[in-house]
Design goal:
single chain; DHBP synthase; five-stranded mixed β-sheet; 8 helices; globular
């Protein structure tokens, strides 16, 4: 079973271990502002493939990536439309995932072969400092078997995926309730792919348009 480390937002002692695990293609469980996620180096094709395997996740379903800054976003896409920038200014950090045109060298499994990458900046101090410390974006597919309940605690992650992860970071219970809203900023008009924590009405008000 994966070791569970109990940490808070001020504890950086585990960063060397976390960076080593990720650099070697390993997987970690960690908290976000919605649920616990599976963290891997998104630029490592083998690590991304592991996520699909342990979750029994159907191929073709993209994997969300978290960033801690707009500078990290530029590692994933070079096309940020004015509409996307408006959404970023209004809702980041927070539970809004934006779809962008992905850079061509990203692992195809990450984008599900769509050519698009889902990215968000979480409103969770622990997660932001974790990604800052790692120094690059981090995958954040929910830490459960595909189709299962989204985990709100490290213990739930351990029960479902503990034998397949290299480390679980326990940052306490997450907010849970709803996953992030997913908005495709490459479509015109923009398309809400998944309803979630950010209401449709709030998005349409900020963007001054009707989303499909």
């Amino acid at each position: 079973m994966a070791k569970i480390l109990h940490l808070d937002a001020t504890d950086c002692s585990a960063l060397p271990l976390i960076k080593k695990i990720l650099a070697e293609g390993g997987l970690i469980g960690f908290p976000t502002d919605t649920f616990y996620g599976i963290g891997a180096d998104p630029f490592n094709s083998e690590a991304v493939a592991k996520i699909f395997k342990i979750k029994n996740r159907p191929t073709g379903k993209p994997i969300l990536v978290l960033v801690s800054s707009l500078q990290q976003l530029n590692l994933l896409t070079q096309k940020i439309s004015p509409l996307a920038q408006t959404a970023i200014d209004a809702f980041w950090p927070g539970p809004l995932t934006l779809l962008f045109e992905a850079l061509p060298d990203l692992p195809q499994a990450l984008t599900g072969g769509t050519g698009k990458i889902g990215v968000r900046l979480p409103s969770h101090t622990f997660t932001q400092k974790l990604i800052d410390g790692i120094g690059h974006p981090l995958t954040a597919s929910s830490a459960n078997l595909s189709g299962g309940n989204n985990p709100e605690t490290a213990q739930e992650v351990e029960q479902s995926l503990g034998s397949d992860l290299d480390l679980i970071l326990d940052g306490g219970k997450t907010k849970g309730q709803q996953p992030s809203t997913v908005l495709d900023s490459t479509d015109s008009p923009p398309r809400i792919v998944r309803e979630g924590a950010v209401p449709r009405a709030a998005i349409e008000s900020v963007l001054n348009c009707v989303c499909t």
